[in-house]
Amino acid sequence: MTNEEEKGGKSNHASTFLDVISGKIGKIGAVVVVLATLVGGFATFMDGVRKIKSSFTELFGGGTKSSNPALCVEAKLLYPPEVSLADWKKMPLSLTGENNCKERVIAFIYFKAPPSLLVLSSPFRPGCNGLKEDDCWENLALEPGPVNLELTRPSLRPLKNPLGEPVPIRINWTLYGKDLNIIGPPGTAEITVHD
Known about the structure:
Layout: H1 3-60, H2 69-72, E1 73-78, E2 82-84, E3 94-99, E4 105-112, E5 118-121, E6 138-142, E7 145-150, E8 155-158, E9 167-176, E10 182-194
Parallel strand pairs: 2-10
Antiparallel strand pairs: 1-3, 3-7, 4-6, 4-9, 5-8, 9-10
């Protein structure tokens, strides 16, 4: 073998060694890029899952506190379907339920009766007599958690004595959020009053 052939052989061998090393480095780099892409894609996917779960929790309760009052307050009135005039002030009358909101919700409760048969006098402001004004009727703060609040009843004055026919008294309530916007459908109950 000549010197030139030996040099050519060494040169060929060095070139092959560099090709092998650079090929391995290229493959390692490609694997690192693929892994980084997979990790980034997985992180983006998990962020999307968290957002969807958060939306579901707000919409359907999920046992956590919600920021949407229309979806997180359950309120109902406990009352007897009928009562005598004599038992009106003693009857059980309460607003119960659950406030799963993050904040306090206000319940505005007012009473209404046929004005030709009964006069309702608000205990909160004399002279209202059945008007639907905010300061005439009761405003209750529903703090987060279980709700069980006794309602204040208006005074009843029959316009006929004896009353004769049973008289329906309608109790309405509306729930307000922190910005004093009405949330959810209003609630209504009716109690029949008799002699």
